[in-house]
Fold this protein.
Amino acid sequence: MAGSTFRTNPVSLHDLLRSCNDGKLQLPDFQRSWVWDEDRIKSLIASISRAFPVGALMTLETGGSVNFKPRTIEGAPEAASKILPAELLLDGQQRMTSLYQVTLRGQVVKTITPKKQPVERWFFIDIRKSLDASSDREDAILSVPADKIIRSDFNRNIDSDYSTTEREFENLVFPLSRVFDGMAWQMEFVTWANANGRMQELWPVVQQFYNDVLANFTGYQVPVIALDKTTTKEAVCTVFEKVNTGGKPLDAFELVTAIYAADGYELRKDWYGDGRDNKGRHGRFVNAQKLADAEKGILANVANTDFLHVVSLFYTRDLRRAAEALCKEGKDLPQVTGKREALLNLPLTAYEQYQDLAEQGFLKAAKFLFTQRVYRLFDLPYQTQIIPLAAILADIGDAWELEANRDKLQKWYWCGVLGELYGSAVETRISRDFLEVPAWLAGGKAPATVSEASFRPERLKTMRMRLSAAYKGVNALLMKEKAKDFRSGQEFDHTVFFGESVDIHHIFPKKWCEDRGIKSDIYDSIINKTPLSYRTNRIIGGVAPSIYLSKLETGSADASAIDPAKLDGFLTSHLIEPTLLRADDFAAFMDARQKALLNLIEHAMGKQSPAAIASTGDYSEELDEDEEEAEFTVAAQ
């Protein structure tokens, strides 16, 4: 077929196994180790013995653009590792290693039981059982201990002994370690049978075994899909993921790791460390801005591909700038991107050039998030937005500390969060923000994330769960705007946040709302929630606001008495109108706080909402009628 980069052809099983032994066929270094247990090995052998198909293999011709570090199949001779392989085995490692270990290596097989216990096994075929049409072929495949003696009754009784060639003949079992040396085994058998007067009895059985069973091994042809050297890295990655569903998942990081390994660079060690004191970049990210023993740092979920993404943004931007300096008008310019194809084509020199810059960007991103009162992974609005944030901060360096730049960065961040723009299909947005935000800080036009972001007032009513980025964002904004705990009057800096177990809680308690028939769709809205400490929430309990406010004012064993005017100030810091809360006026409270939260959001985003707030009668009506959940859209201008 025109344009095809692969061919499919049958290859002798014996030839494939010899290629493994000689080092001509090796594995790419990203492949996991051989892990099959003895039962799976027996099943595979049984299928081959009956000439049943066991699936195709896939190989990749070496010498092309995909330059993986190779490693020999498990158990191959040391000399094989000195050979430059002609092909790499992309799919079929477990099958080929199992067959190589059993049939060609000539040594005991170190495998595991189905219960994952390590064992050493030799594999035989019971000749008579293999010729019995009524017998399950797998029952004819024997796995025996390293000494080739099968025992029972806690090793006190010997059931079968195959420890010498003569005893193999006596028991009429064939060693699979000699499956490609069957003719020599037969000649030895003839000598033994004639000497023991059993030739006439047993030779017909052995001949039938050779023709009906053993010949299936020597004549077995394996379908091989061979990818040639012109196959791209992206194609190799995609193909591997499609065909190797039962094996190790292969992402861009694994593939890049294998490519860099060919040049002697250990990317995995760079990311994960060496297993001792050096924890690598990942360990440094897990511990970045970590302020509580039970918590991971805010960067703990940054993936290795996220890190490569930032490096790729810098590298591809350099390529674009170079092209801009040279290209003629109208010529297509390289994309600035961190998509998988770009990661797979990221040269080691680029990684080495930008790795430290990218790490500093992520560490600065963690500090930035703390300034926005995003302290925990649990409360992070968007994991994906950390990528452009890190890239931007790495790019602008110390300039992020200037007040004017910091204000713009905050506006961009909150437009992404509250505009809910980083939820899906974000690769293009990441690249655009990486280019547009620094230009904006330097006096250019606002980035698309800022100009396109929109927040509709009705959205506040439908924000009920932490899955919503905007829900988490409003909670963080309240803390950032110096909301104070009802009980202690403390602002929610990181010390108070972790020390007082701060979380988001209902203002009008759930029980109070349900006792009055208010539906959860209404009272679970972010409008009726705010950050509070664990002890404050216990005082609130399930009673009316007027009651728990009175308890706070009079004091208790958990809290000192609070002056009513001071308590009103605490409430106001949460954008709560004290008179409405003290009057237990749920409908008016919801109306007023919706407007106040909208003002907070508009201030954070630096723009007004596209529609006016609904009238003040909405919530009282909704207590008796089903709420029609407002649709929320992000308007792209």
